[in-house]
Design brief:
105 residues; alpha+beta; Alpha-Beta Plaits; five-stranded antiparallel β-sheet; 27% strand
């Protein structure tokens, strides 16, 4: 899965600091939801979030969406974002257009 966020100008340092200091209970929630191999890349104000899930994104969304920990985490970061969803409220999904699996040596 890959989705995008856009930060507000000037929010870059705080956003990065908050993820270095990720709450242990947030990490535990991601594990419980089956999220693994989660990377967030930043290019200027653009955040590119790439993650894998053990049981699908719908399951991960149900687990995290029902969590008070997720609600607190989101509220604590919301002032940093300029854009997190499209006009319909859907995440800004990025769809794969190329994949090179590499050659086994």
């Amino acid at each position: 899965m890959c989705h995008l966020y856009r930060l507000r100008p000037g929010a870059e340092a705080e956003y990065e600091r908050r993820h270095v200091e990720l709450w242990p209970e947030m990490a535990a929630l991601l594990d419980e939801a089956g999220v693994y191999d989660y990377h967030i890349y930043r290019h200027g104000l653009l955040l590119i979030c790439v993650l894998r899930t053990r049981w699908g994104f719908a399951h991960a969304g149900r687990v995290t969406g029902a969590s008070e920990v997720q609600a607190r985490w989101t509220a604590s970061l919301s002032h940093l974002f300029a854009e997190i969803a499209d006009a319909d409220g859907e995440p800004l999904w990025a769809y794969p257009v190329f994949h090179h699996p590499g050659r086994r040596m």
